[in-house]
Structure to design on (284 residues):
């Protein structure tokens, strides 16, 4: 039908699904001004031959045991006949008997009118959402959408169904530590031009090791630092194996175009080192 949701996914997941062009009265079903009466009559013609159920594109069936569907008719459509659901047994509707006629009379099987809850009922009337046969229209009434945090820990029929649809499981997912997929605990710094290591740079290295808790700090540059602070880092047992200098050539040209300014060379060097750092993380 024209109102089937996720049509592309259905065609992908079910290659045996055949699509037919809508013709006749059914083509009027999705017109904005079709109205409730026309839509119910159209659905009755469609379902009346073999029996079946119609479910609106924004309607979720939460709790529908098979015994609950053993009825002649269950009309759970909203006022315009688009959302909600409708169940009809084969052969109960004829040229002289409409769905409305069935609901006026008693039969051997159940005949009932039902009402689907709306999103605001999930929060204000959970009893309407959790009873047997419950359905929810996930649209309208000022609640056009809900958010992931609304279903993460909902321990009810709606929460379980929403998690199954969006996350593939009804279970409430809890964060769990995983030591096998951690980002490498490494830090990268840049020192260009050699020269005496500043106290601020020295403190930055110690901060990475003892505050951030990095295992190793890699310093990338064209010339290593000098001075007593750098000598201390290379000598002390606490740092000598955890701070490593990686010599890299300072770039002077890009695609055969030569750049003489140190400012550009340093900028390009920083960019190349950033690419290297990301690449090394991917390989780790």
């Amino acid at each position: 039908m024209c109102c089937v949701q996720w049509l592309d996914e259905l065609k992908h997941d079910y290659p045996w699904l055949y699509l037919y062009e809508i013709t006749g009265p059914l083509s009027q079903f999705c017109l904005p001004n079709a109205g409730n009466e026309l839509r119910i009559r159209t659905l009755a013609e469609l379902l009346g031959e073999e029996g079946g159920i119609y479910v609106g594109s924004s309607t979720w069936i939460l709790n529908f045991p098979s015994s609950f569907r053993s009825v002649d008719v269950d009309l759970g459509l909203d006022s315009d006949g688009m959302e909600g659901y409708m169940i009809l047994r084969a052969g109960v509707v004829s040229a002289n008997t409409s769905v409305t006629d069935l609901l006026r009379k008693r039969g051997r099987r159940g005949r009932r009118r039902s009402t689907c809850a709306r999103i605001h009922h999930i929060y204000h009337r959970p009893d309407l959402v959790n009873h047997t046969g419950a359905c929810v229209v996930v649209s309208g009434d000022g609640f056009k959408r809900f958010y992931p945090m609304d279903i993460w820990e909902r321990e009810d029929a709606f929460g379980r169904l929403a998690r199954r649809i969006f996350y593939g499981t009804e279970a409430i997912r809890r964060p769990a530590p995983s030591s096998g997929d951690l980002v490498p605990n490494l830090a990268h710094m840049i020192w260009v031009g050699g020269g005496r290591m500043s106290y601020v740079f020295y403190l930055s290295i110690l901060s990475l090791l003892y505050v951030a808790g990095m295992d190793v700090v890699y310093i990338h540059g064209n010339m290593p630092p000098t001075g007593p602070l750098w000598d201390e880092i290379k000598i002390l047992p606490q740092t000598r194996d955890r701070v490593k200098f990686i010599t890299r050539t300072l770039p002077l040209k890009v695609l055969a175009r030569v750049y003489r300014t140190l400012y550009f060379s340093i900028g390009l060097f920083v960019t190349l080192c950033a690419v290297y750092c990301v690449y090394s993380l991917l390989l780790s």
Remarks:
- The chain has two domains: 7-167, 185-283.
- The longest helix spans residues 262-283.
